[in-house]
Amino acid sequence: MAKGKNIVFVHPDLGIGGAERLVVDAAVGLQNQGHHVTIYTSHCDPAHCFDECRDGTLKIVVRGNSLFPPSILGRFSILCAILRQIHLTFSLLLIDTSVSSSIDYFFVDQLSVCIPILRYFLPDTRILFYCHFPDKLLATRKSLVKSLYRIPFDWVEGFTTGLADDIVVNSKFTASVFKQAFPRINVVPRVVYPCVDIHEPEKAQKLEGDTYPFLQGSDRKIVLSINRFERKKNIGLVVEAFAGLAEDKRTKARLIIAGGYDNRVTENVDYHTELEKLCDSLNLRHATCRNYISSLAIPSDIDVLFLPSVPSALKSFLLRTASLLAYTPENEHFGIVPLEAMLAGTPVLATNTGGPLETVLDNGETGWLRPPEPSQWCKILNTALFEIDENQRSALAKRAKRRVVDNFSKESMAAALQREYDILDKVKRRELGVLEIMMPTVVGTAVAVGVLVGIGKTDWGVLSGVMGGIVYASFAGLSFVAKRKRSRV
């Protein structure tokens, strides 16, 4: 791929999380390769995003954020996400026409519903879809109504994902799951590993942690957990393992639980409360630090410290000073935090499932992989904190850093993405069929069915009226944009 190509990323919500970190790193990596990169997103809060999104490193354009909310009374998140992406896509096509007419490649991730729309209106622009993990496998189905509600969305996901020019995934684990989830997609996705900035430790401020009183002068060994405050992250595992340490050793250690937290997300708020209650049940003293002011009131003798939405500089400091990173999710698609820890020379304890099997080398090589059982994790906490000496820790740190530098650098990821776009240039794209051309209508109809089932409306007269309106609006939209296209030719 020649230098100076115009690459547009389409991402739903540019907050703080593993998927967002990957998107930002991919965008920066391609930009450093000499390409022009723009990220289109439906939401980006300067107070809740990565530094590159607010300091001018990347060009961020927020569209599709005015008609539909992220959820409706805490429900219908997937419906709203689809509607917001459709709004975002048509805003790019109809409002930012000078941008859309010059795009060489798209990088689409998480939601694939925009792919047929982009292919129809920009037939010369190639689309790479990055699959972090099939959304249909992440959705909960606790009731028959929820299962029925998900049917159209699952179908839309599989159908639209298969229309991408190329598909890549974040790990071999995700590749195997992808084939099971979408057996009708005739593509074997290749792996493009996420990355970390291997120069980050050099750029980080020396002692950001000195700003925070609870970290000043403490000789406690730190067990660090960094994850979004979500139940699937299984953070309670390390809380229970930490509580299992002998009391005389626990007084010499502290568990710090940091990570993505958004007050708009009900699960973040609820799960934080659940973890506090778990600490209470295990007789662990705990506190929550949300900013510098609240840090002044943190007692020095607490066992567990919660740091919601930890700033990047403090996160970097914690990764460099922790004695162990405890990475608790099961069957995690990839997991970027273990790489960040290893780059900082910190050993990792992770579950022996999913992505960490491809990043962490077991039995003290760069860390440990164990079943998600508190008793087994407690044994490793004891080993990592109190049994290995400084020489062993130093040798482990060197091995961990070398593994990341050799295999998971930003430059490696950018080069891999460039190779994928080179492949796209050489493969002949098949023409869209009638059904694919009418995908906006199909999506709209599926969404209508999904929301009506979800709210318990099964009146066929109402359903037919809604579907008819969507079909009419879709034809009108297609005709309008087709006329615009012809007028520019």
From TrEMBL:
Q: Where are the transmembrane segments?
A: 434-455, 461-482
Which EC class heads this enzyme's classification? transferase
Whether Lipid metabolism counts among this entry's keywords is no
Q: Do you know which SUPFAM superfamilies this protein is assigned to? A: UDP-Glycosyltransferase/glycogen phosphorylase
Q: Which InterPro entries match?
A: ALG2 (IPR027054), Glyco_trans_1 (IPR001296), Glyco_trans_4-like_N (IPR028098)
- What species does this protein belong to? Dactylellina haptotyla (strain CBS 200.50) (Nematode-trapping fungus)
Write one Gene Ontology MF term. GDP-Man:Man(2)GlcNAc(2)-PP-Dol alpha-1,6-mannosyltransferase activity
Give every Glycosyl transferase family domain span. 218-402
The Glycosyltransferase subfamily 4-like N-terminal domain covers which part of the protein? 16-198
Protein family per UniProt: Belongs to the glycosyltransferase group 1 family.
Q: Name one GO cellular component term.
A: endoplasmic reticulum membrane
* Official protein name in the record: Alpha-1,3/1,6-mannosyltransferase ALG2
Key words of the record:
Endoplasmic reticulum, Glycosyltransferase, Membrane, Transferase, Transmembrane, Transmembrane helix
Functional note: Mannosylates Man(2)GlcNAc(2)-dolichol diphosphate and Man(1)GlcNAc(2)-dolichol diphosphate to form Man(3)GlcNAc(2)-dolichol diphosphate.
User: What Pfam families does the annotation carry?
Assistant: Glyco_transf_4 (PF13439), Glycos_transf_1 (PF00534)
